[in-house]
Specification:
Keywords: Signal. Pfam families: Polysacc_deac_1 (PF01522). This protein folds into two domains: 145 residues, Jelly Rolls, CATH 2.60.120.260; 207 residues, Glycoside hydrolase/deacetylase (TIM Barrel, Alpha-Beta Barrel). The protein is built from eight helices and 19 strands. The strands form three sheets. Strands 1, 2, 3, 4, 5, 6, 7, 8, 9, 10 and 11 form an eleven-stranded antiparallel beta sheet that branches. Strands 12, 13, 14, 17, 18 and 19 form a six-stranded parallel beta sheet that branches. Helix 2 links the parallel strand 12 and strand 13. It is globular, with a radius of gyration of 21 Å.
């Protein structure tokens, strides 16, 4: 569980430092491995990671607003109130609420003279109480409503999380060196109640260049037969989320193929999928599944990718995040789009690569704003909703055209792990 709040050099608010998936449930066979008392703490466990990445990254960058002075914020829709019992850090957060009669809850803060976010990415601490899942949108007026950048992230109710806010839509020609207003909203459409808490809006230095990670869930056969040769022709590595207890099935990547792909620079990472999402498993079962999946990777020679997890069905809750933080440095969810600097490493968002236009839009944002765009695929067959081989090749050609650096989970982690 995240706790505490670290001050980074006592800098004033708004002042930067010196320059520096939706997938159908598949019943899983009984896991091949079992471990005694998987619910115990990971202290001393040889499979545990060296440190909790969520704790290390939670206060990266510099403070834009700590929500300690609620008078700085106005309301466009819904309502907000000071909350002293549910806080990320400091003495209070803001509780935002929309009733069934409201279409949204929407607050804003203005900045006299504007603030410079031209070389920064934003993150916001959010605790969603209801509904179970929703999208949070942050709008930057730069300098006015005719020139805006819309940022956003999807979130599950899972205690405090730091949402890394990536670009979603551009209006006009926003000048991010002159941001005069920041607004935060959750849209419900009416007919339901929404309640969530916000705290600690921070900015981190923007990366020098855009990156793309190409991920595949479920270790399906077409990832080896079709996607692998296409990526090899470009010199691109990929990331496979392996369901360990399915390895050896005829419609999965053959065991020898997994070795071949790893030898070419690919990562085999954990994808501990059961018949239920992690939101439906007990904390003990969550921990057992996470540990067993990592153990299989380590025992089978895939240590390089074993420190990373792709969330089954893209879903998680607070206890699942706690367990994953004991065994993994990075976790990838189903939705989220491009993101900048990582502030909550267990919930890195991805873009559905089956939608070629959506994937290209995410890649454009990655190139324009130096973001990380993580593309998500399952089958590469063209059957059902899956991307066709030709469409997949088209997207990879576009990655080449944009000149984006293609990273894996392990190479990306090596590039950021010591940045805070």
């Amino acid at each position: 569980m995240l706790s505490g709040c670290v001050a980074r050099g006592g800098e004033p608010a708004g002042t930067p430092p010196a320059p520096p998936t939706s997938e159908p449930p598949t019943p899983a066979p009984t896991p091949r491995f079992s471990y005694d008392d998987p619910s115990v703490d990971a202290a001393g466990d040889p499979l545990a990671v060296a440190f909790n990445s969520r704790e290390r990254f939670r206060d990266a960058g510099w403070l834009v607003d700590d929500f300690e002075d609620e008078r700085l914020w106005g309301t466009f829709a819904g309502r907000y109130a000071v909350e002293e019992d549910v806080v990320y850090c400091g003495s209070q957060s803001l509780r935002l609420e929309a009733t069934p009669a409201d279409e949204r809850v929407w607050i804003y803060r203005t900045f006299d003279g504007g603030i410079d976010l031209s070389d920064a990415d934003l993150s916001l601490a959010v605790n969603l109480e209801t509904p179970d899942t929703e999208g949070i949108t942050v709008r930057l007026a730069a300098p006015d409503y005719d020139n805006t950048l819309l940022l956003g992230r999807h979130v599950w109710a899972a205690g405090w999380q730091r949402l890394d806010l990536g670009p979603r839509r551009v209006t006009g020609s926003p000048d991010l060196s002159n941001v005069t207003e920041i607004s935060i909203q959750l849209y419900t459409g009416g007919g339901t109640t929404a309640r969530f808490y916000v705290d600690s809006l921070r900015a981190t230095p923007r990366a020098d260049a855009g990156k793309v990670m190409i991920t595949f869930d479920d270790n399906t056969r077409s990832q080896y037969d079709t996607a692998y040769p296409i990526l090899e022709s470009h010199g691109f590595p990929g990331v496979v989320g392996v369901i360990p207890w399915t390895v050896g099935s005829s419609h999965r990547i053959p065991r020898s193929g997994m070795d071949e792909m790893v030898d070419s620079g690919w990562d085999m990472v954990s994808h501990p999928q059961q018949s239920d999402s992690f939101r439906d498993l007990s904390p003990a079962d969550q921990r057992a599944s996470i540990r067993e999946s990592k153990a299989w990777l380590v025992e089978n020679g895939f240590e390089r990718g074993a420190d990373f997890i792709i969330w089954p069905y893209g879903r998680y809750d607070e206890s699942a995040l706690d367990a994953a933080s004991d065994y993994h440095y990075l976790g990838f969810v189903t939705v989220g789009g491009p993101t900048g600097a990582i502030s909550d490493p267990q919930i890195v968002g991805r873009t559905d690569g089956d939608d070629v236009q959506k994937a290209k839009r995410a890649l454009d944002f990655a190139a324009q704003y130096n973001q990380l765009s993580v593309l998500m695929y399952h089958d590469v067959t063209g059957k059902g909703r899956s991307v066709s081989p030709a469409a997949f090749a088209e997207t990879m050609d576009y990655v080449d055209e944009l000149g984006l650096d293609v990273v894996t989970a392990s190479s990306y982690w090596e590039s950021i792990r010591d940045t805070v």
